[in-house]
Amino acid sequence: MLTATTLIGCNTGSAQSTLEKIGQLHLNALDGSVTTYYPDGYRERATSVADLLAASTGFFEQEFGVRETFSIAVLDSASWVKVTEIPYGLPFVSGPPNVVCLPATSNHELAETIAASIAEHDLDSKHGMSNREIVTLFTDLIGFHELGHVYTWASGIPTPNKWIDEFAATYMAWAYLDKTFPKGAQIWVDAAHALASEIHPGHTSLSEFEARYVRVGIRNYAWYQSVFLLRVREVYELEGIDFLGKMKNRNWSSTAGIYFLDDMEEMVPGFATWARTYRLVE
Asked: Would you say the C-alpha torsion 64, 65, 67, 68 has a positive or negative sign?
């Protein structure tokens, strides 16, 4: 879902991989099914993230018949800037070799954006958690979106443009959460509703998303990703995990329609209405 910037396939030739950059920082590492790197003082945080994300590997292997390896890096701002130019706090995945990077703290714009958006929505009362805990969990759940990119690629699901790539990754994440962590899924979508309603984006069209991507700014990017998640949930309630099979078997060679909205509409009606509702089409 949100946030996440995908860098899969970006390492070419002799370019240094993100994992190699992380290795040069001489961070601590948790041993386990998924190696997790972290700076001094963040072992508890790293363990929490590792336990959350590593539990998903069996699900994706069983559902899609693919086994992927990945590492996790839980980074403070000082380590983050040595690894990527992506703004601190915005989770991303890079690879291969695949490494999911998440922030070690909540001192960043994305956390501030989430906190401000959910402040008046009583999610703390609904879910029995503090808003601070919800902000942290929401950010961590984006890690499943990042893994969604890894498994979308590994499963051979073609994505013809950026917004459909983000949609597919979130769909993967939602399929996992719905079946294994429904409380997390509900918190994720509740917070997405708040973000979509409270943020007043400067950019709303798919054309701007395709052209600018994360350059729309963190708040605006959070709005786009939240809107994508809301549609993912709608489609999942109708189609379940089978919709990913429809995407995999779709012939995306057609250029009819705006940014393949017509193709998505043919597979599951409702995309056109959704796009108009959120001003995704000009």
From this structure: negative
Q: What are phi and psi of 5, to 5 degrees?
A: -95, 135
CB 11 within 8 A of CB 238: no
Residues 173-215 have pLDDT tens digits of 999 999 999 999 999 999 999 999 999 999 999 999 999 999 9
Query: Which residue is it, tokens 């409702």?
Result: 270
258-267 CB burial, b ≥16 within 10 A, e <16: ebbbebbbee
Is 107 in contact with 77 (CB distance < 8 Å)? Answer: yes
Residues whose CB falls within 8 Å of the CB of residue 11, separated by 6 or more in sequence, listed in order:
17, 18, 94, 95, 96
Query: 261 — phi, psi (to 5°)?
Result: -60, -40
- Kindly report the number of other CB atoms within 10 A of residue 281's CB atom: 16
Nearest to 132 by CA among 108, 113, 110, 106: 106
Which DSSP state fits 103? E
The confidence band for 126, taking pLDDT boundaries of 50, 70 and 90, is very high
Q: How far is CA 246 from the centre of its chain?
A: 21
Please, which residues have CB within 8 angstroms of residue 33's CB and are 6 or more apart in sequence? 54, 57
CA dihedral 166, 250, 154, 163 (to 10 degrees): -10
Q: What span, in angstroms and rounded, lies between the C-alpha atoms of 221 and 4?
A: 9
Task: Report which DSSP code applies to 215.
Answer: G
